[in-house]
Amino acid sequence: MLRPVNNAVVNEVLEPLRLGGRVAYLGEPVSVSDHLLQTATIAQAEGSDAPLVVACLLHDLGWLIGSGGAGHETRAALFLSEFFDRSVTEPIRLHVTAKQYLCTIDPDYYETLTLASRRTLHSQGGFLDAHGTAGFEAERYALDAVCLRRFDDRAKDPGAITPELDHFVPMLESLIGV
């Protein structure tokens, strides 16, 4: 069951980012928080709806909330499912598979990935087989996950200027508990 919105809930959602977001982002020239802010800013500038912008803002939160058996995308989606509906959590859960999918269906896409993103692709299972491709395409939020992935790929610029995290708080508030 989703919680009603209040400041404590927003703070709980954003706490991992505020506390740990300044760490380097997996070999990229930006921090985790810079990457997430850039991804959300790009999504918003491209006219994405609020759930996708919030998914972009929070998609790599799993890197900051533990480790272990589940991938970062699953950790983030599970944590956030207490607060948001599937329109936010499913693109997050699927964004790694979206990278695998794009690499599988578009040989040129792989060449656009940074070295760090290529490394994580291989550690995340690499390319999809026919079953994996069909399974991804059948997912309700596959298109949103592909959009998130493409915004993610563009969000690794150390010189990018973005709004502060608080810019996105009203959007988070509008979606928590919906």
CATH superfamily: Hypothetical protein af1432
CATH topology: Hypothetical protein af1432
CATH architecture: Orthogonal Bundle
Helical residue percent band: 55-70%
SSE class: mainly alpha
Overall spatial form = globular
Q: How would a textbook summarize the main sheet?
A: none
Number of DSSP strands? 0
Tags for this model:
Hypothetical protein af1432; 178 residues; 61% helix; mainly alpha
How would you characterize the overall build of this protein?
The protein has 178 residues and is mainly alpha-helical. The protein has one domain: Hypothetical protein af1432. It is built from 10 helices and no strands. Helix 2 (32-45) runs antiparallel to helix 3, helix 3 (50-58) crosses helix 5 and helix 5 (86-105) packs across helix 9. The longest helix is centred in the middle third of the chain and has 20 residues, at 86-105. 39% of the residues are buried.
At a glance:
With 178 residues, this protein is mainly α.
Secondary structure layout:
Blueprint: H1 7-20, H2 32-45, H3 50-58, H4 72-80, H5 86-105, H6 107-112, H7 115-123, H8 130-138, H9 142-153, H10 169-175
Helix pairs in contact: 2-3, 2-9, 3-5, 3-9, 4-5, 5-9
